[in-house]
Structures are given as C-alpha cells and as structure tokens.
Amino acid sequence: MHVENSDAFKGVESWVPVCLPRFDSGGCLHAHISYLDDGCDICLVLMTVNPEHFQILSDFRQRIGEKLKKVNAITQIKIALGKDRLLTDEISCNELRFFAYKSRGLSQYTSSKLLVPYTTNEQHVRLFELIRYVYGRLHDPNHQLKIVYYTGEHEALLGWLAPGFEMYAVFSPLVTLETVTLCIDRILTYIKREENQLFIMKCEYF
After folding, report:
1. CA–CA gap between residue 145 and residue 134 (Å, rounded)
2. Among 33, 72, 109, 159, which is 20 to 30 Å from 128 by CA?
C-alpha cells in the first residue's frame, strides 16, 4: 500500500476502508495504519475484513511495537532506511536499471530502487505502464507465455513467469541477451542468498 502525504498519519491510528474487488466484490477490507516511531517513516498496516476490529488491531499494534523495541528492531530499520544501498551495485550489473521479483509461494515481492533515468513521475508512469503491458502478456489466458522480452527506444524489459517466482527486469535499450542472462542469474543468486532478509519466511505470533 502506498500512502500519500504520510506525515498526516504520524501520531495517530487511522482506520481506512480498502476496496479490493477481486478479494471481495461485495465488501472491503479495513486497514489500521499507524507509525511505530514518529521519528522516521516506519509505517505499519494491519488488515481485517471485520469493520469492528479497530481496537483489536490497535492492541496488536501496541504489542508489535513493544516487541520491535525490545529487540532493537526499530533502530535497525532506521539504519537500513538511511543507507543508500543499491541492489544493482550488489548484483554488479551495469546495464540493469530496475527489477521487481515476486515469490509466488510467499506472495511477497522485493524490488530495487528506481534510478536514473526514472527520476520523474512521468518516467515512473511510463515505466510501470510498460511493465503492466509485459505482465498482461504473461498472464494472458489465451497464450501460455513464460518469458516475454521487450525492446524499445528507451529500455529493454524481461518478464519471466516461473513456477516459484515472477520477475520483471529493466535494462538499457542496447543491452545484449548475453548480458541479460548474466544479470538475471545474478539477481536470482542474490535473492536466494538474502531471502531471509528480503522476505518474511515464517509468521511469528506476538
């Protein structure tokens, strides 16, 4: 969930209806939105289908906050947020501009930061419209495509729908297929190595 004007949510516990027609065409989810620390952008969103569960989620939020502070997790999150760490640097692939990876088994995703040339809202919209186009090709029920490779004036994009994951990787427009293959392999190796840091591998009850 992307929250515009996030400062408006700091210091308060908000209760927001969220319409997800594919989840429930006859109702909506309810999101409890709060910040565990007013000093940085650590936003916690708890979801429920019951509109009467505000207090239950508020109490749960309190328990989460207490446990995170007890293990010093909030401080570690602040440190991580302050780092200018680029996944593309760790992967060492100069032609790679952006990637998004979804674990289909966990229903969670991770992505790299948007870098140059994607620095304006217009460029963001253009990029994600392209990703949405490739997504549509992969998920077209009339065509069982597993890989879509698109080349255009501004970038090249690979979409890959595998049994365990879904990936979208954006490269400079003149990238070679050899480099794309090498970069994808490095991304997958990196994600496998760091999966405990990138994903919630198991649920822990507070």
Report:
1. 10
2. 33
